[in-house]
Write a structure and sequence with these properties.
By secondary structure, the protein is mostly helical. Helix content is 76%, strand content 3%. The chain has a single domain, classed as N-terminal domain of the delta subunit of the F1F0-ATP synthase (Peroxidase, domain 1).
Protein backbone atom coordinates (compact mmCIF):
# COMPACT_ATOMS: atom_id res chain seq x y z
CA UNK A 1 0.00 0.00 0.00
CA UNK A 2 1.34 3.40 -0.93
CA UNK A 3 2.43 5.71 1.83
CA UNK A 4 0.24 8.60 0.60
CA UNK A 5 -2.87 6.41 0.57
CA UNK A 6 -2.15 5.27 4.09
CA UNK A 7 -1.60 8.83 5.29
CA UNK A 8 -4.96 9.94 3.88
CA UNK A 9 -6.62 6.83 5.32
CA UNK A 10 -5.16 7.43 8.78
CA UNK A 11 -6.24 11.07 8.78
CA UNK A 12 -9.75 10.06 7.71
CA UNK A 13 -9.86 7.34 10.38
CA UNK A 14 -8.76 9.82 13.06
CA UNK A 15 -11.67 12.10 12.20
CA UNK A 16 -14.27 9.39 11.69
CA UNK A 17 -13.42 7.53 14.89
CA UNK A 18 -13.23 10.74 16.93
CA UNK A 19 -16.80 11.44 15.82
CA UNK A 20 -17.93 7.86 16.44
CA UNK A 21 -18.57 7.44 12.72
CA UNK A 22 -16.10 4.73 11.74
CA UNK A 23 -18.64 2.17 10.51
CA UNK A 24 -20.94 4.64 8.71
CA UNK A 25 -17.91 6.23 7.03
CA UNK A 26 -16.66 2.82 5.90
CA UNK A 27 -20.08 1.99 4.43
CA UNK A 28 -20.36 5.34 2.66
CA UNK A 29 -16.84 5.06 1.25
CA UNK A 30 -17.65 1.56 0.02
CA UNK A 31 -20.67 2.95 -1.83
CA UNK A 32 -18.61 5.75 -3.36
CA UNK A 33 -15.87 3.29 -4.35
CA UNK A 34 -18.42 1.13 -6.17
CA UNK A 35 -19.71 4.12 -8.14
CA UNK A 36 -16.15 5.24 -8.87
CA UNK A 37 -15.13 1.76 -10.06
CA UNK A 38 -18.17 1.46 -12.33
CA UNK A 39 -17.65 4.78 -14.10
CA UNK A 40 -14.62 5.22 -16.32
CA UNK A 41 -16.06 8.62 -17.23
CA UNK A 42 -15.99 9.72 -13.58
CA UNK A 43 -12.43 8.48 -13.07
CA UNK A 44 -11.24 10.27 -16.20
CA UNK A 45 -13.12 13.46 -15.28
CA UNK A 46 -11.66 13.63 -11.78
CA UNK A 47 -8.13 12.82 -12.95
CA UNK A 48 -8.09 15.28 -15.84
CA UNK A 49 -5.94 18.39 -15.37
CA UNK A 50 -8.10 20.06 -18.04
CA UNK A 51 -11.14 20.01 -15.73
CA UNK A 52 -11.37 22.85 -13.22
CA UNK A 53 -11.35 22.20 -9.49
CA UNK A 54 -14.74 23.91 -9.29
CA UNK A 55 -16.22 21.43 -11.77
CA UNK A 56 -14.67 18.50 -9.90
CA UNK A 57 -16.01 19.82 -6.60
CA UNK A 58 -19.48 20.17 -8.10
CA UNK A 59 -19.48 16.53 -9.25
CA UNK A 60 -18.26 15.30 -5.87
CA UNK A 61 -20.92 17.38 -4.10
CA UNK A 62 -23.62 15.83 -6.31
CA UNK A 63 -22.34 12.32 -5.74
CA UNK A 64 -22.08 12.81 -1.99
CA UNK A 65 -25.64 14.16 -1.92
CA UNK A 66 -26.95 11.31 -4.07
CA UNK A 67 -25.27 8.73 -1.84
CA UNK A 68 -26.38 10.49 1.34
CA UNK A 69 -22.77 10.53 2.49
CA UNK A 70 -21.55 12.56 5.44
CA UNK A 71 -19.53 15.74 5.53
CA UNK A 72 -16.56 13.59 6.58
CA UNK A 73 -16.72 11.69 3.29
CA UNK A 74 -17.27 14.90 1.34
CA UNK A 75 -14.22 16.53 2.86
CA UNK A 76 -12.07 13.44 2.37
CA UNK A 77 -12.90 13.32 -1.34
CA UNK A 78 -12.41 17.05 -1.76
CA UNK A 79 -8.97 16.89 -0.12
CA UNK A 80 -7.91 14.08 -2.46
CA UNK A 81 -9.20 16.14 -5.39
CA UNK A 82 -7.56 19.38 -4.26
CA UNK A 83 -4.22 17.60 -3.88
CA UNK A 84 -4.62 16.04 -7.33
CA UNK A 85 -4.66 12.56 -5.81
CA UNK A 86 -7.93 11.22 -7.22
CA UNK A 87 -6.03 8.27 -8.71
CA UNK A 88 -5.48 7.18 -5.08
CA UNK A 89 -9.20 7.04 -4.26
CA UNK A 90 -9.57 3.22 -4.50
CA UNK A 91 -6.33 2.59 -2.62
CA UNK A 92 -7.07 5.24 0.04
CA UNK A 93 -10.52 3.75 0.61
CA UNK A 94 -9.07 0.22 0.91
CA UNK A 95 -6.46 1.57 3.33
CA UNK A 96 -9.19 3.29 5.36
CA UNK A 97 -11.08 0.01 5.73
CA UNK A 98 -7.87 -1.72 6.85
CA UNK A 99 -7.03 1.04 9.34
CA UNK A 100 -10.54 0.86 10.84
CA UNK A 101 -10.22 -2.93 11.22
CA UNK A 102 -6.77 -2.66 12.81
CA UNK A 103 -7.80 0.08 15.21
CA UNK A 104 -10.92 -1.85 16.19
CA UNK A 105 -8.79 -4.90 16.95
CA UNK A 106 -6.35 -2.83 19.02
CA UNK A 107 -9.22 -1.27 20.96
CA UNK A 108 -10.71 -4.71 21.69
CA UNK A 109 -7.29 -6.02 22.73
CA UNK A 110 -6.71 -3.10 25.10
CA UNK A 111 -10.16 -3.62 26.66
CA UNK A 112 -9.42 -7.31 27.12
CA UNK A 113 -6.03 -6.58 28.71
CA UNK A 114 -7.66 -4.05 31.03
CA UNK A 115 -10.32 -6.57 32.03
CA UNK A 116 -7.67 -9.24 32.62
CA UNK A 117 -5.76 -6.80 34.85
CA UNK A 118 -8.90 -6.11 36.87
CA UNK A 119 -9.49 -2.74 35.19
CA UNK A 120 -12.56 -1.50 33.43
CA UNK A 121 -12.82 1.89 31.80
CA UNK A 122 -9.44 2.82 33.16
CA UNK A 123 -10.46 2.25 36.80
CA UNK A 124 -9.11 -0.50 39.00
CA UNK A 125 -11.67 -2.79 40.50
CA UNK A 126 -11.40 -2.86 44.26
CA UNK A 127 -10.95 -6.33 45.70
Amino acid sequence: MKSASLQYANAMADIALAQGAGEPAAKQLHEFAAAYAQSAELRTFLASPAVSMEAKHAVIEKMVARLGASKIIRNFLLVLTDHRRTQLIPEAIAAFHQVIIERGAKERDSRNVGAADGQTDGNKVCA
